[in-house]
Design a protein that fits this description.
Length: about 210
């Protein structure tokens, strides 16, 4: 099975544009988040080994481990998003002739919808982690490439909110009130955390670059 990580950019763009349900917005969000993490890694790699930034070498190595882990995890989440969608789609094809079949189908669909809520939320969580890395990397990283940290900031923010669209859509269809309340609260919290992380990252990049983002 070919994973998203194995696909050429052009090939992924082709299947994303095609008249098919997957990959869709959730996968695109995960890819955008992965690209944001890659840009953070790039800034760090230009910082490491530069005598001017020797004082932050150890710190940057730790950030690089984090950004690279996020890059790969987000790529994997693009595939998990497809799996979650397919699980929901499979439920709609289940028989519903008898009451027993209807009950089984409804239960399976509700469970699948919960999974389809959690996967894009995980994407949003990883994008938040990328946003939080931008602040220290933008503030202390190689100033010659901090503009790329600024690009990562915008990409990660867009990816996070794009992923949360799918969270909202699935929560609307879930009948478990406790689950909906719990995950709605989580969604509100991550939006607030993302706003704070974005502001901090923007300030750091602007200070280093001397331009407004």
């Amino acid at each position: 099975m070919t994973t998203t990580a194995d696909m050429a950019i052009g090939a992924f763009s082709d299947v994303l544009a095609a008249k098919q349900s997957t990959p869709g917005g959730g996968g695109a969000a995960a890819i955008a988040g992965s690209q944001a993490a890659a840009l953070v890694s790039m800034v760090i790699n230009f910082t490491l080994g530069n005598p001017k930034y020797a004082g932050v070498e150890a710190e940057m190595k730790e950030y690089l481990q984090q950004s690279e882990a996020l890059r790969h995890t987000l790529l994997a989440l693009a595939d998990r998003d497809v799996e979650a969608f397919n699980a929901v789609s499979a439920c709609y094809g289940m028989p519903r002739t008898t009451d027993a079949e209807k009950t089984t189908r409804t239960a399976a669909l509700q469970e699948a919808l919960k999974g389809a809520t959690q996967v894009p939320f995980q994407t949003a969580e990883k994008c938040l982690a990328v946003l939080r890395l931008v602040e220290p990397v933008g503030r202390k990283g190689n100033a010659n490439v901090v503009s790329d940290a600024g690009a990562a900031l915008y990409l990660a923010k867009a990816a996070l909110h794009s992923a949360l669209i799918n969270v909202s859509i699935n929560l609307k269809l879930i009948k478990d009130a406790q689950f909906v309340a719990e995950w709605s609260a989580k969604q509100a919290n991550i939006v607030a955390d993302a706003a704070a992380a974005y502001t901090a990252g923007q300030s750091a990049c602007e200070t280093t670059l001397g331009v407004a983002l």
